[in-house]
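Contributing new complexes? Match this layout with pyridoxal-5'-phosphate.
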Amino acid sequence: MLEITVTLDSHLEEPLYLQLYSFLKKEMVEGRLTPDTKLPSKRKLSTHLGISQTTVETAYQQLIAEGYVKSEPRKGLFVNKLEMDIFPIKKEHVAARDNFQQSPLPNSIIVDFGHGNIALNEFPFSIWRKLTIQSLYEEESHLLLSGHRQGDLPLRVEIAKYLYQSRGVRCEPDQIIIGAGTQYMVTFLTMLLGRERVYAMENPGFHRSREAFRDQGVKLLGISLDQDGIKMEDLRESEATVAYVTPSHQFPLGMVMPISRRMELLKWANETDSFIIEDDYDGEFRYTGRPIPSLQGLDHQGRVIYLGTFSKSLIPSLRISFMVLPPPLLSRYQNRFSIYKQTVSRLHQQTLYLFMNEGHWSRHLQKMRTTYRRKQSTLLTLITEKFGNQVTVIGVDSGLHILLEVHNSMTESELINHAEKVGVKVYPTSVYYDVNTYSLNPMVLIGYGGVTESEIHNGITLLQKAWELF
Ligand SMILES: Cc1ncc(COP(=O)(O)O)c(C=O)c1O
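Output block (do not edit by hand):
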């Protein structure tokens, strides 16, 4: 039986499970743990290393989720065969679709400023585990059968309450449709709204939705932005009758759409018989000023389709997102699309329902707001301290990422490659632009949700060196 010996240090800020996970991943990538090797059981490894079984379990789960390890029923966990060619290949043209794939990070990366990451060490593992088990009691055996196509009602009731209180969305649970991710929602909406319509999106905008629209074969126009968000004159001049926007925190530039632009957008939709898809992906995290309620809350004519997700505020792997349909679209959905079954597991729905209903959700959100605010403030302080006026920071009002325009005459790919050489992963912004429309000064995207404060410190110090900013 394989023994694994690793020095884990509980004094480090990095949690033990991450230390164990990184160690095992390194051993696999570097070939010391070979494919098909059986890993020790949770119990054995936890006794051997003097750590809890939960720590081992969490590290193992992460390795399984990332494909490093496979679980074989009744046999145990085995090292997977790694395709070495999935490790990042450097390419000049970052806007290629291939670059949207999330490759495992090279082993040399010390700090990953990925914008899709969240603070894993703050996830309430024990509560979630307890509620997951509770959802599996025999009295709940009905959950093993198919549920309501829109998602289970108790969860929709909780979501409606939360949306009203936290985001100013006015809706009945009947208007909510739960589904596995924003891209699924976008795909579904093109069917519901019709593929003959012309769609518009912010340019730059959320690349995953853009590709989902394109793959549906609809005509999609990129509309440029000014400091308040989507440019109304360009939208008005276009033939679009559906506009996809991120008003609470423009993705990726980060501006918050002011009320005047929101009213203009609603006016456009009313006058042109159009719809607005409001993607409110991280609207819970706002750091300056008062919370700005959703666009949906201002809409009295049934023009706004609200999209929400638990990916940023809870965990991305849950794959629970939802849309709120305005009444005219709801009847079309019920008449024409009721054949489509729900895509999210009822067990996860029930766990999330219990989590919300018992008050854990609002506590978690409160906690995460404080955590992310603190991380952002550490990041901004360090950027000012180390980079001074050699950079411009963009989009600090909300969310889990900022953009950094670096004035050192490096191109976007040079900034990324130089950072990677010192072990720091920062991300391109050009991928969010329509082809050939990226003409700005080089900018990189820095997510801070998934990094610890000491990693932020380390990362910014290394970037100062990599980008020669002294
Ligand atoms: C702009 C935007 N919308 C939506 C999402 C969430 O997508 P999903 O619900 O598929 O996880 C993200 C996550 O990164 C995002 O950046």
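Reviewers usually confirm one structural detail per submission. For this one: Residues 16-91 form a domain with the Arc Repressor Mutant, subunit A fold (CATH 1.10.10.10).
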